[in-house]
Amino acid sequence: MLKQGNGVELLKELESNSIDLIITDPPYKTTKRGNSGGTGGMLKEDNFIKGNGGFANNDVKFSEWLPLCYNALRDGGHFYVMTNNKCLKEMLNELEKAKFNVFKTLIWAKDNCITNMYYMDSHEYIIFAYKGKANKINNCGTRSVLNIPNCKNKLHPSEKPIELMKILIENSSKENDVVLDPFMGSGSTGVACLKSNRNFIGFEIDENYYKIATDRFSSEKVVVKEITYRDTNTTNNELTLF
Question: What is the CATH number of the domain that holds 227?
Fold first, then answer.
């Protein structure tokens, strides 16, 4: 199930303990992409990267949606969230406030890098947390550093490789489980779910990326599970694929 709309508001519609796994690359503060002589650094609260970066909705606070994810996730369910080094401390603090148990931080090692005046960035962080009791992953031989090539010809500036998402999905869920991405972008998590025989719920506020995601999903043979929502008066666009 795909819905266009504000992910924070749509999270409020989900029933408690209705989701088996959550994986997301949420909006967060970014840094300027400069060369080795550039200054880089955190952008001001009112000056997020926009335009071609596609980040017009980057002003969502972690504290607004992490507790909602905790509520929707079933007991024992896993939670993966991607972030950068500038937001890592804040994300970890907010996860703790939301009552998540943080197990470890995984590293996605990419085959490309971003130059700056210190060290070239060639990795991203994936925080691995869970709700309630601890459950082991399905493939305990998976290393904490995931060497997966970055996407070529991206549909979204922050698009993640399907192969990377499949590793997380297949390690932390079983077939026919329900996987949620409340900030799905162009839908890579959902495509990985389909290829792994998982059900998917995705929210996206940007109309352009929502259209890209629906087009990707429509090209797949999909069966999705019915999800129970709380009564609401929202009028967001919704696509159910069968």
Answer: 3.40.50.150
Domain count, the chain: 1
**Strands 2-4 and 199-204, sheet pairing:** parallel
27-61 burial code (b ≥16 CB/10 A, e <16): bbbbbeeeeeeeebeebeeeebbeeeebbeebebe
5 and 236 Cβ atoms separated by less than 8 Å:
yes
Nearest residue to 146 (alpha-carbon basis) of 169, 165, 129: 165
Answer for the pair 31, 41: CB distance below 8 angstroms, yes or no: yes
Q: Tell me the two tokens of residue 52.
A: 């071609």
Give residue 104's Cα distance to chain centre. 17
Task: Label residues 149-172 b or e (16+ Cβ within 10 Å = b).
Answer: ebbeeebbebbbbbebbbbbbbbb
Q: What is the pTM of this model?
A: 0.81
Residue 50 binned pLDDT confidence (cut-offs 50, 70, 90): very low
Which DSSP symbol is given to 43? Answer: P
pLDDT > 70? residue 48: no
Reported as a single tens digit per residue, the pLDDT across 172-200 is: 999 999 999 999 988 999 999 999 999 99
Choose among 225, 227, 21: nearest CA to 135: 21
Rounded to whole angstroms, how far apart are CA atoms 13 and 188?
A: 23
Cβ(224)–Cβ(199) under 8 Å? yes
With H, G, I as helix, E, B as strand and everything else as coil, classify residue 145.
Answer: strand
